[in-house]
Write a structure and sequence with these properties.
This protein has 338 residues and is of the alpha/beta class. It has eleven helices and 15 strands. It has two domains: 2-119 and 307-336, Medium-chain alcohol dehydrogenases, catalytic domain (Quinone Oxidoreductase, Chain A, domain 1), CATH 3.90.180; 122-278, Rossmann fold (3-Layer(aba) Sandwich), CATH 3.40.50.
């Protein structure tokens, strides 16, 4: 099999393709011949060296794949051979073949191609957990979404609109027309405007979804209404460059309003702060697979739209990471074996 490895921390060019023996499925496992693997910001942070949940380097990252079951282990019905599936996995996704537990491999709906399937698990499950399980968006809610044009931002939009809520987001100006067509009610160009000032005269928000961290969490907290919920699901402020920069990390961490985010303050403000980290959910196989099945069902019903920005061969994996670094994507970037 072929895999994309992070041999050491550094810029995207450090990524390299290596060949290894094909893995064999064990008891209760299946092997997936991977046709597409999703790329996420956590992968970039792992490569830079600022992702605490990343495996020790050298390593193969990747949280999501789509492909076809081509071998099964003991205890798995052989009728599963040839089944197109989507799977969420803890690392190893940048591989042409991958072994997962049988329950992790969720059948793909008819008509769903591999690139679309690989674009759903991480962003879709993150949006689902934030909006359906934790913040529980409801009709009429005002929801503020950072990085509206990214994978999570687009998945969140469909879940927000499904509930009859209002979606406001941040994105580069060139993405605004497309995002309005997709359903965002209002957009702020974060590259030229301070979003807190731009929204100062608007009604406060019921929910704020923030993957940035640092000072952005403080702003989001101030934008909440009484009873509002700030959902923190990333810390991209610590990964501004293409390689590790401890100054960025420390500076961003210092801007977190630690004193404001304490039980007494939250009690007095009648606000909530929630955290979502899908990287710490891999032990919840049944829950994740159940949520993923619901997301695939929504796609089949036309209620979840998936946009794939680019399909990049393994041999050019550095380009995939570069697209995310430069915030060029409108939707998901996936890797495909050469």
């Amino acid at each position: 099999m072929k895999q994309v490895w992070i041999p050491r921390t550094g810029e995207p060019r450090v990524l390299e393709v290596r060949e290894r023996a094909d893995p064999k499925p064990g008891v209760g496992e299946v092997r997936v011949r991977v046709e597409a693997a999703g790329v996420n910001f956590a992968d970039l942070m792992a490569r830079i060296g600022v992702y605490p949940d990343a495996p020790p380097l050298p390593a193969v990252v990747g949280y999501e794949v789509a492909g076809v079951i081509d071998e099964v282990g003991i205890g798995v019905d052989r009728d599963k051979l040839g089944t197109p599936v989507v799977a969420a996995t803890r690392f190893g996704g940048y591989s042409s073949h991958l072994v997962v537990q049988e329950a992790q491999a969720v059948p793909r709906p008819e008509g769903m191609d591999a690139a679309t399937g690989a674009a759903i698990p991480v962003t879709g499950l993150t949006a689902w957990m934030m909006l359906e399980e934790m913040a529980r968006v409801r009709e009429g809610d005002r929801v503020f979404v950072h990085s509206a044009g990214g994978g999570v931002g687009l998945a969140a939009l469909d879940l927000i609109k499904r509930r009859g809520a209002i979606a406001v987001g941040t994105a580069s100006r060139w993405k605004h027309d497309m995002l309005r067509e997709l359903g965002y009610d209002k957009l702020v160009d974060y590259t030229t405007e301070d979003y807190e000032r731009a929204l100062a005269d608007d009604p406060p928000f019921d929910i704020v979804l923030d993957p940035i961290g640092g000072e952005s969490w403080a702003k989001g907290f101030r934008l909440l209404k009484t009873g509002g919920k700030l959902v923190c699901f990333g810390f991209s402020a610590a990964a501004k460059g293409k390689s590790r920069n401890l100054v960025d990390y420390v500076t961003s961490a210092a801007k977190i309003p630690w004193l404001k985010f304490n039980p007494v303050s939250l009690l007095n403000e009648n606000k909530a702060i929630m955290g979502v980290n899908m990287g710490r959910m891999w032990g919840e196989t049944e829950r994740l697979s159940g949520w993923l099945a619901e997301l695939l069902k929504l796609w089949a019903q036309g209620a979840l739209r998936v946009r794939v920005h680019a399909q990049v061969p393994f041999s050019r994996a550095a380009e995939a990471h570069q697209i995310l670094h430069d915030r060029e994507n409108l939707g998901k970037v996936v890797l495909v074996p050469d």
